[in-house]
């Protein structure tokens, strides 16, 4: 049985791992010689290998090596690949903090939009929260000296939409760790084909490769395994709420490891986006 202390510890560890993906990718593209396509290929491959190893170590009939290859599906793998590629290319120009904020906002917006499209009813406080979050995103992207580059912002939004689609498709798909491992393994050939098409623009050095491996194996593969374990002790609303910490952790990491400045625009937009999403999630729980 998972104790409350263990749940808190695992949850915190998972959020740090998810935030670390932004830090690792940004550092790799800024301070090493690796290109975003190569980073994507290595990250997905390393994540697939780590998840395969974790599943194998569970040593059950349902999670044998042959079972891994039969789980997941190609559509989910495609969504996973689009997320990873968009994520990497967006971080050519975005700061770690801005990228994480846009990614998280786009993921939540995608999932909320699907709920509304499916006929889910929302209350006035949820409408207020959603409106506040949308205002925050628009404010962040308004033209100005401190606005993030539009191309990078759009790529990260696309990555967030892809991850939102992936998350929606994963609902009720069975053992989440096993399904994720299967999707990662299916995403490897997609990434390799993509890498071959970008071969003329590829570059890498040992430092960049190391960052990509850590991002894939530890921050992604191991991070997901930890998160799925923590989820057993969390309610749905709590799980959604704690994910609000990821952009905050990425901001702190960007300041510490990359020396990224935090602008007033970013602070105000963060308060609006994260506060609005928190208002939506918490009131969704109350309505249920």
Automatic annotation (TrEMBL):
Where would one find the signal peptide in this protein? 1-19
Q: Which residues cross the membrane?
A: 38-55, 76-94, 100-118, 125-144, 150-168, 177-196, 208-227, 239-259, 265-284
UniProt xrefs under InterPro entries: AA-Vitamin_Transporters, EamA_dom, EmrE-like
| Entry annotated with the keyword Signal | yes
Give residue ranges for domain EamA: 151-281
Name where it's found. Answer: Membrane
Primary residence: membrane
UniProtKB keywords: Membrane, Signal, Transmembrane, Transmembrane helix
Top-level taxon of the source organism: Bacteria
Keyword Translocase present in the record's keywords: the answer is no
What kind of membrane protein is this, topologically?
Answer: Multi-pass membrane protein
- One Pfam family linked to the record: EamA
* Protein name per Swiss-Prot or TrEMBL: DMT family transporter
Look up and give the organism this protein is from: Actimicrobium antarcticum
